[in-house]
């Protein structure tokens, strides 16, 4: 099939590369000229395992190309995926300006039947707006359909998630749109849930909100575990083996971040409010997540006493492992709060250093590895569970640290082993 992908962020680029890899012809569009120039040379500006190689291979085989022209790409394609950003406004509401612009551009250039699919995470009723906009701005008497096909891929495992999803959701209003999307996704051989457009839009918000709720739930339980002398890892296993609950997203720690959960929670709260429902449950999910970062800071001050003037080694800055993404990363919030309190930071992250350097400028030294971050630090704080932090040379670390103190904000170490190695150790919700 011939597909236009408008917006080359994480979702757009991964979707484009994967559809091309499945044999489709994909035209990628972005208004950012610099990005398109880089992509034309095969330079992927984001770090996503396997993506660069996949894009380059499909470029070579002529199945994927990049341009800044919506016009050309719309005319050459049968299906148009809108993957532009929907950032949060100050009040939490999703900002849909880019989506409106793109809808108008599509309308002006539509020359034959097109299926226009929203893939960006959008509030319910956006599909209606896209339809109205296209109807209002199109010049020709051509037919089109709008559909919703929310994306569930995670950064760091995006290609695997795209190629092997648990399910695909398509929200459609016509038999033609349904057939096109069923054919497009047929090679993935996965369950497809067909709904109306509004249900598909709500499914995306409800999924992310539910997953965020699971994380805040387990973080709340971890606080109770600490107070009661129980161990959150045992408790999470004990409840998670119940298939109705499942073990996924029950990892207690420094809280959730990223470009999706915090933004989508705020947007869903806003949508619900607009419809007359006060989603207090999600307000609480957000509050617990904020509190989790303070809990880490309290742990630091409990173990090293006063924070002003201390040097704190930080391992991990990205919002989760296997990505260079630092958007809403709990690590950045924690580092900023420590700096404000007067600490000096020695930080290391395997992939997120460049991006962090742009936002963290004062009282921070970016280090070459975990050992460098530990050097002369009063404690070491784990904020992202990168694999390379899991098996460090602890004897060497102990020698480098000013005080043998580890605050494990992602529960990657065994408390008993750390104690045996002579560290003063604390995790989140763990029995020491
Ligand atoms: C999330 C969803 O998982 C995807 O299904 C969805 O497509 C995507 O948002 C989106 O809306 O685009 P992502 O933000 O890439 O994906 O990352 P996750 O793996 O979901 O992790 C989000 C945050 O939760 C991270 O900060 C992670 O450290 C934290 N987390 C996750 C926990 O603290 N505990 C857990 O058990 C799981």
Give an overview of the whole structure.
This protein has 432 residues and is α/β, with parallel strands linked by helices. It is built from 17 helices and 14 strands. It has helices at residues 10-21, 33-40, 51-60, 70-76, 97-109, 126-137, 158-163, 175-185, 197-228, 232-240, 261-274, 280-304, 330-340, 353-359, 370-374, 394-400, 415-420; strands at 2-6, 25-29, 64-67, 79-82, 114-118, 144-148, 168-171, 192-195, 311-315, 344-348, 364-366, 379-382, 405-408, 424-426. Strand 5 (114-118), helix 6 and strand 6 (144-148) form a beta-alpha-beta unit. The chain starts with a strand and ends in a 6-residue tail after the last strand. The mean pLDDT is 96. Residues 121, 151-155, 208, 211, 215, 249-251, 253, 256-258, 260-261, 264, 319-320 line the site of uridine-5'-diphosphate-glucuronic acid (UGA). Uridine-5'-diphosphate-glucuronic acid (UGA) binds at residues 121, 151-155, 208, 211, 215, 249-251, 253, 256-258, 260-261, 264, 319-320.
CATH superfamily of the largest domain: NAD(P)-binding Rossmann-like Domain
Q: Looking at the structure, what is the overall shape?
A: elongated
The fold-level CATH name of the largest domain is: Rossmann fold
Integer-rounded radius of gyration: 24 Å
Strand content: 5-15%
CATH class of the largest domain: Alpha Beta
Number of helices: 17
Number of strands: 14
> Structural class per helix/strand content?
alpha/beta
Q: Which CATH architecture of the largest domain would you pick?
A: 3-Layer(aba) Sandwich
**Distinct compounds present:** uridine-5'-diphosphate-glucuronic acid
**What is the share of helical residues?**
40-55%
Mean pLDDT, nearest integer? 96
Number of domains: 2
């Amino acid at each position: 099939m011939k597909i236009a992908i408008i917006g080359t962020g994480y979702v757009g680029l991964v979707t484009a590369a994967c559809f091309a890899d499945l044999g489709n012809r994909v035209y990628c569009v972005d208004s950012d000229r610099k990005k398109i120039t880089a992509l034309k040379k095969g330079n992927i500006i984001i770090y996503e395992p396997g993506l660069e190689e996949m894009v380059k291979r499909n470029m070579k085989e002529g199945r994927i190309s990049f341009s800044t022209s919506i016009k050309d790409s719309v005319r050459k394609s049968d299906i148009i995926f809108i993957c532009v950003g929907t950032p949060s406004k100050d009040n939490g509401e999703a900002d849909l300006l880019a989506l409106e612009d793109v809808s108008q551009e599509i309308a002006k250039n539509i020359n034959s039947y097109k299926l226009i699919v929203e893939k960006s995470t959008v509030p319910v009723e956006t599909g209606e707006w896209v339809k109205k906009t296209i109807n209002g701005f199109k010049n020709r008497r051509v037919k089109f359909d709008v559909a919703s096909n929310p994306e569930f891929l995670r950064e760091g495992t995006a290609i695997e998630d795209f190629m092997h999803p648990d399910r695909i959701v398509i929200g459609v209003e016509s038999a033609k749109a349904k057939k096109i999307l069923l054919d497009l996704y047929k090679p993935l051989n996965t369950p497809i849930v067909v709904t109306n457009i509004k249900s598909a839009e709500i499914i995306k918000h409800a999924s992310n909100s539910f997953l965020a709720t699971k994380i805040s739930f387990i973080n709340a339980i971890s606080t109770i575990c600490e107070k009661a002398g129980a161990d959150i890892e045992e408790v999470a296993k004990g409840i998670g083996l119940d298939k109705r609950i499942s073990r996924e997203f029950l990892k207690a720690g420094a809280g959730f971040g990223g470009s999706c959960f915090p933004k989508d929670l705020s947007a869903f709260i806003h949508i619900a409010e607009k419809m007359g429902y006060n989603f207090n449950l999600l307000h609480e999910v957000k509050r617990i997540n904020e509190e989790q970062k303070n809990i880490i800071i309290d742990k630091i001050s409990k173990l090293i006493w006063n924070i002003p003037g201390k040097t704190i080694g930080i391992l991990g800055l990205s919002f989760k492992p296997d990505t260079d993404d630092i958007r809403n990363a709990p690590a950045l919030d924690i580092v900023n709060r420590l700096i404000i309190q007067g600490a000096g930071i020695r930080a290391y992250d395997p992939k997120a250093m460049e991006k962090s350097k742009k936002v963290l400028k004062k009282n921070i030294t970016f280090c070459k590895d975990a050992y460098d971050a530990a050097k002369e630090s009063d404690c070491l704080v784990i904020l992202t569970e990168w694999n390379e932090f899991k098996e460090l040379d602890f004897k060497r670390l102990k020698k480098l640290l000013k005080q043998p103190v580890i605050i494990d904000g992602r529960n990657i170490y065994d408390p008993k082993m750390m104690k045996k190695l002579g560290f003063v150790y604390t995790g989140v919700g763990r029995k020491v």
